[in-house]
Amino acid sequence: MRVVIAEDLALLRDGITRLLRDNGMEVVAAVEDGDALVDAVERERPDIAVVDVRLPPGFTDEGLRAAIEARRRVPGTAVLVVSQYVEQVYAVELLADGQGGVGYLLKDRIADPAEFVDAVRRVAAGGSAMDPEVVGQLLARRGRASPVADLTPREREVLSLMAEGRSNAAIAAHLVVSDGAVEKHISNIFGKLGLGSADGGHRRVLAVLAYLGSG
Amino acid sequence: MTISRANPLARLGEGATYRQLAHVASALVLGPAWLVLLVVGWSVGVSLTVVLLLGLPILAGLAEAVRFCAQAERSLANALLDAGIPRRQPPERRPSLLRGLRAWITDAASWREQAYLMARFAGGVPLASLVLGVIWAGLAALTAPAYYMVGDGIELGIGRADTLPEALALMPAGALVLLLCPWLVYLAASASRATARVLLTPPPGQPAHRPAPMPRDLRRRALAIHAGVVAGIGGVLVAIWALITPGGYFWPAWPMISLAVPFAVHALVLARHPIGTGARGRLRALQVHAGIAVIVNAFLVAVWALSTPGRYFWVIWTILAASLPVAAHAIWVAAGRGDREEMAARIDTLTATRAGAVDAQAAELRRIERDLHDGAQARLVALAMDLGMARERLSDAPPETRALVDDAHEHAKKAITELRDLARGIHPVVLTDRGLAAAIGTLAGDSSVPVEIDADPGARAPAAVEAAGYFVVAEALTNAVKHSGATSVRIAVSRRGPWLLVRVADDGAGGADPEGSGLAGLRHRVEALDGVMTVTSPPGAGTVIQVELPCGS
User: Fold this and answer.
1) Residue A4: CB partners within 8 Å, gap ≥ 6?
2) What residue ranges define each of the domains in chain A, with the CATH number in brackets?
């Protein structure tokens, strides 16, 4: 798997590079700012770009803008954005194009290498990886008038895990229930939220995220 | 010592009357001496300074001389007039020549001293002549018969006594005049004493703190006004000259000297070393102005006396020309115009410096957040990552070792979380790049209470205003969750003209203390931006915190 990394702090850039190489990925470019990221993506056509939100020169959201621009220029490029803080507006903007292959994680998640590498693989494969904190913010945003308020606590839990990008099996393992029970919860959730058929895979997750991210 | 005013004979017997007379009479000697000192000192000093800079020591010497003479006059006034004027303390340390001169020129008290020395000539000599003349006339009349017997008639100025009866008849008139003389002396001495007290009383000791210097733009404007007045009067004079005596002797040169010298002192010295602000500073500036005008015209009087004595007293025009700016200055000071302008300037300065302080503080907070992000936070993430990788490779290690690494890993992750919350509390980055609505959205997302937000995501306001709004919402949300037990919060952000309105309403217990540390801190923050914060929190009916912040557009 070919990876481009955009991170201005050398310490983290080297760390992430090492982490991904140790896990059998090929880091084809490690750049320091947004313009270089867009160039590298156009040149290298990587499977995934791991991007820090905050890059020079403004140190605000240059990484996010560059990631969205790279996806626009090279459609289908998977993007995993890492950030010191999670901001739901960033998540909503990332999800806005309705395509798969996006992830948005706190930088902290790098501290758990196995999970981080798993998230990189999932996103590169066209899935998604949303930080639990982002999902929490998106759910909270819906307010009391939303159908989300009608979900049972268990259904909310399943919805959160689904939104993080986890598979049915992973959800079942996490909640210590059977796959069938998870399927049942999911169809209940989709019914309550008025979403179309739950046809499995990452499209299901996208539907949930699009629902949470919209208005 | 009280002097009976009713009994002229008692006055005649008072020693005080003769001491007063001595003081009045001393003007005949001292007045011309002071005139010569000042005129020669200034004209030689200034002209040599202009030419060769040699005049500076002469001017410094003049300053010393004036100080010494004024001190002598103080002693004289105290001894003869019971004026009770305190000594003037000499400067604590001897400054350099230029510095000392500058201090002397900008010192209102030194100008008052010079004015007194000039007054001893201009007022004292005529007064002494009058008093001594009257006494002389009285004495002459009283002793007329003796003169008559000694000589053959006597010229009294007021008439001739050619015969003994005539001379005898003058005696009562002389006695009457002499009896009235103590009153005349008393009046003259009172005037002298008052003049001495006004002009010679040294300033009170150095103020504990130097007065604030006059703002630069005010100084410039004062100089510009002065230049305008000088140019206006000069222009009128030239116009009159052109109308009446075109091509003739250019007499406006003399009044112009009288206008130009005070202006030159103002432009060269006072504009750079203002006398100070405040009512006292302005009064001193007026004194210096008047003092310079007096000196210049005394000099011109001397020129007149030396060149065209007894002829047309043209100095009246230079005096008039110098008096107009002084009078305008006096009216300006008396009308308190300076107070208002100074206050307006002060308010402008305070507004600007406060805005600067607020901006500087906001920039400093952004810098601290950025340093944390690039430094400690990045290092902690790298550390946690290394520990995480180490943990995965330690699957075969002894349980104690694994437990240690697990703990270290957890601590590192907790430290990251804590540091993130801290950095976010210092300055939320999303506020800078996405604005208040987005930042409030994140706050609401992290809140354990349902929050409804009504805010325009695209609306932006100045950074300091957005930051204040953000921290108001953050504090209000924290209070709602922690203290009031609210089950829902509504946040509204709207723009009303130039004002940004932020309103946070919860359905909690109410009874919040607007002066509590958290809310008081917010109020200070809002008020530093000229904003208004209101807290409505009746017990049992929820809390509404509303702020209005000016956006300056």
Assistant:
1) A27, A28, A29, A30, A31, A37, A40, A41, A44, A46, A48, A49, A50
2) 2-130 (3.40.50.2300), 135-213 (3.40.50.2300)
